[in-house]
Amino acid sequence: MGIEVKKLSLVLAVAVATVLSVSPLYAANKPTTVPGCKTPTAKAHTPVTVTEPMAVSKSLPKTMTIETNCGEIVISMLTTKAPLTVTKLSALANAKYFDLSFCHRLTTQGLFVLQCGDPTASGSGNPTGWKGYKDENLPANKPNNYPLGTVAMANSGPGTNGSQFFIIYADTTLGPDYSIWGKVTKGLDLVKKIAEVGAYKLNPSDKKPYYATDGYPIQPIEIRKVSVK
User: Fold this and answer.
1) Residues 106, 212: contact at Cβ < 8 Å?
2) Position 111 in a domain
3) Mind listing the pLDDT tens digit for each residue in 134-158?
4) CATH number at residue 80
5) In terms of residue numbers, what domain contains 136?
6) What pLDDT score does 25 carry?
7) What is the pLDDT of residues 61-84, one digit of tens each?
8) What's the rounded Cα separation, in Å, for the pair 211 and 15?
9) Is residue 134 part of a domain?
10) What's the N-to-C CA distance of the chain in angstroms?
11) Any alpha helices (H) in 44-198, and if so which ranges?
12) Number of domains comprising the chain
């Protein structure tokens, strides 16, 4: 199971409302919210168009701050190891590409990731007109090659990076296929709490939610603003 850019079997239009219906169903045996998280206001939407930078920026920011409805996630960006990736993501952040979008995928078994960066929240969205860019700073093919706190790009094959990225909240073993561009320095406890609540999918027949090890976070995680400096 990899971290691919692909469509999940979710319907975001009803996702937030569905979370509310999860509460009475599972309240007796598992929490459905993280204390301190605010009600999200974002909606899945067509992303803004951003001109793709084709060369590495001469002045790269070192820190990305993701402001969510549950608190801040701060990432130290690996500017020397993944300069092209940092350049591309910084352009998206400065254009407000990520603002008011959802982290659309949470996995809780086998691999431990929170995946974000797709304003369409379908799992298949990428910046309009971008062709995909090369991989950088790929790890060795060994156990736990994506350790706790790692931030890396999701893709659909070599050289297909776009806007989607994932945060590792527990040591994870993956194929060495995903560009590592950052390390979480603040907010990892928040991601862990979201993971503890779990993920869900919708039953295709009746649209009712059920627990899943790979699905939409039960506690909605909304990116309100992303900034780099």
Assistant:
1) no
2) yes
3) 999 999 999 999 999 999 999 999 9
4) 2.40.100.10
5) 12-29+62-228
6) 43
7) 999 999 999 999 999 999 999 999
8) 14
9) yes
10) 34
11) 83-94, 188-197
12) 1
